[in-house]
Amino acid sequence: PRRHLEGQTALVTGASSGIGRAVAVCLGQAGANVAVNYSSKEDAALEVVKEIESSGSHAFAVKADVSKEEDVLSMFDAVRAEFGTLDILVNNAGLQVDSPFIDMTLAQWQKVIDVNLTGQFLCAREAVREFKKRGVRPEISCAAGKIICMSSVHEVIPWAGHVNYASSKGGVMLMMKSIAQEVAPWRIRVNSIAPGAIRTPINTAAWDTPEHYAALMKLVPYKRIGEPVDIGRAAVWLASDDSDYVHGITLFVDGGMTLYPGFETGG
Ligand code: NAD
């Protein structure tokens, strides 16, 4: 891969597995130094660090629960201590706590909002503070900083049985756009990626048997499941100057899942 992120530093939240892992590795392959955030699986995070270092970039693991303000503040201190500053934030950490709406507890609602929405708010705010204070370094990048929010096709597709999750991602959409509007004058770019069905631990039940996979393909016009690297490549593009005039968008990386696949036969 081109090392066009050389000299830049990235923080990827929830980077010890799945999409976050692939994003961290792809950013490292593109030349960025990467802070690998994890919440509990230190071993897995250290493996990601090793993989990034084998591509010739620097990396380190940093523990933080993104829903806790004090954890987020100390994570940003750790990133500054290790790398001096930050250029790229990927707000990836997220989870599902599924329940029929009628039985959903306040704790189940709150947990998902806390991690998926408030966690992205806290990290984005700290990143903007750092980007604005430091400003543009033209030899490094056209922008003073880039934020990529991991949303979902469920920022637009309603999802029965997952009201908390869909609400969090709908919230991410307007949070991202509102931040983008507010910080653009400081040359900070803010965008989202909305993955469709990607093969990760969060949705094992959707692809782990041939029957489940066939059912999933009814929702995917392109007829293959997404792989984490599909998202990693999109993240590298959004983080790089190749997308310098792209601001406040959601990039859907979903094999056409948002194209109303129920209509694909025209019948
Ligand atoms: P995953 O479960 O493998 O990864 C989620 C990561 O977030 C894990 O490493 C987990 O430890 C971390 N995390 C959870 N709570 C955290 C917290 N409080 N603080 C820090 N880290 C925390 O699943 P994934 O599919 O890789 O999900 C990554 C992101 O992609 C999520 O935001 C998810 O909503 C989104 N997404 C995934 C899919 C998909 O099909 N896999 C589709 C759309 C969106």
UniProtKB/TrEMBL annotation:
Residues 8-201 form the Ketoreductase domain. It comes from the Bacteria. This is SDR family oxidoreductase. Belongs to the short-chain dehydrogenases/reductases (SDR) family. GO terms for molecular function: oxidoreductase activity, acting on the CH-OH group of donors, NAD or NADP as acceptor. PROSITE patterns: ADH_SHORT. InterPro entries: KR_dom, NAD(P)-bd_dom_sf, Sc_DH/Rdtase_CS, SDR_fam.
